[in-house]
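Input chain follows. Return structure tokens only.
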Amino acid sequence: MKISRSNALAWFWGLAEATVFFIVPDVFISWLAIQGYKRAFIACLWVLCGALLGGCALWFLGRTDPDSLRAIFVALPAIDGTMIASVQSQLQEEGLVALFLGPLGGTPYKIYAVEAANIGYGLGAFLLISIPARLSRLLLVSVVAGALGQLARRKLSLRSAQALHITVWIAFYIWYFSVMAE
């Protein structure tokens, strides 16, 4: 079975963002979605597989050396000790359901993987809840980006719609990093 370049990139981006990369794979998924839903939906599954592998690796490392991982995380943009403490509280109060809500508010999945292991949630339960938690957001991004892409393509060429896509994500990350850095 030959894996397309876009699916390989989706898998790698899912793995990277679940571990140390700080740009969400939603950027790539939405890029595909403005061109058509099918490739985007398939790429969502590849992102999910990469994210689950990354989450699994961090879960194991989080059981043995969470402090080292926390030190790595706070060196990444937009993550600080307060965010990590918030994830710990969310997991203790809400359980693994927190995996649905936290990432929607800009809290990285990687923190949940480490803290879930550190608190004592089993790997199976963590991965099982990760599937709908990660996939629901990716599919939502695909649907919204695809719909907006179709609207934009009524007035713009594909190239112009792609330029708009890049501009929107750059603006989002300028805003996100400025807000999260406070």
